[in-house]
Design brief:
The complex is a heterodimer of chains A (about 120) and B (about 110).
Chain A (H helix, E strand, L loop, with lengths): L4 E3 L2 E4 L5 E6 L6 E7 L6 E7 L2 E4 L8 E4 L6 E5 L8 E8 L9 E2 L3 E5 L1
Parallel strand pairs in A: 2-11
Antiparallel strand pairs in A: 1-3, 3-8, 4-5, 4-9, 5-6, 7-8, 9-10, 9-11
Chain B lengths: L3 E2 L5 E4 L4 E7 L6 E7 L6 E6 L3 E5 L2 E6 L4 E6 L8 E8 L8 E3 L3 E6 L1
Parallel strand pairs in B: 2-11
Antiparallel strand pairs in B: 1-3, 3-8, 4-5, 4-9, 6-7, 7-8, 9-10, 9-11
Classes of the chains: A mainly beta (about 120), B mainly beta (about 110).
Chain lengths: ~120, ~110
């Protein structure tokens, strides 16, 4: 009965380093969302998967950000050549089918600090 | 203009009082509205969802939606210190055919004993 899990919980990276953030959605949930939450702000949408298909990546801030979900379950958000402005909490959420009225269940987030 | 706007607060109310949290949105085609609670350092947790005009009550919480005014609110009755958190208003944009949410910046609520 586990919820959404994310790892690592905390990541400190040097500017220019690549990082990979992992999300394990709730078992059976077809839809998976990534959000970025800066300090004192609400989450901002990054990208959306339905099974293994990335249907919306309109929120990815630059081509340094890349997400995948190759088998329709676990997802990885990769940030290449990290910059200080990438420092934020990265939240993953999943829902059963991704419909407009469905509850999204959030993971604990990965707190990324780029020095 | 931000798509979803909230007063960042903090909103301070005494224990037992009614807390009123407000949110406006810009997309008239929006169809689904959610209130999430987020404790400091934790992830957002769904409190209420509302889809049609009017009031929806769940325990001490009441969500109110007025699509004509593009306004959604959350009332918390008999506020408790444990209600102290940031409350995020989220809207499912009418232009999206997925569950993609647009969040406000959140309102910090402080309930004082």
């Amino acid at each position: 009965g586990a919820g959404v899990s994310q790892s690592p919980r905390y990541k400190v990276a040097k500017r220019g380093q690549d990082v990979a953030l992992r999300c394990d959605p709730i078992s059976g949930h077809v839809s998976l969302f990534w959000y970025q939450q800066a300090l004192g702000q609400g989450p901002e949408f990054l990208t959306y998967f339905q099974n293994e298909a990335q249907l919306d990546k309109s929120g990815l801030p630059s081509d340094r950000f890349f997400a995948e979900r190759p088998e329709g379950s676990v997802s990885t958000l990769k940030i290449q050549r990290t910059q200080q402005e990438d420092s934020a909490v990265y939240l993953c959420a999943s829902s059963f089918t991704g419909g407009r009225t469905e509850t999204q269940y959030f993971g604990p987030g990965t707190r990324l600090l780029v020095l | 203009q931000k798509e979803v706007e909230q007063n960042s607060g903090p909103l301070s109310v005494p224990e037992g009082a009614i807390a009123s949290l407000n949110c406006t949105y810009s997309d008239r085609g929006s169809q689904s509205f959610f209130w999430y609670r987020q404790y400091s350092g934790k992830s957002p947790e769904l409190i209420m969802s509302i889809y049609s005009n009017g009031d929806k009550e769940d325990g001490r919480f009441t969500a109110q939606l007025n699509k004509a005014s593009q306004y959604v609110s959350l009332l918390i009755r008999d506020s408790q210190p444990s209600d102290s958190a940031t409350y995020l208003c989220a809207v499912n944009s009418g232009s999206s055919n997925t569950g993609k949410l647009i969040f406000g910046q959140g309102t910090t609520l402080q309930v004082k004993p």
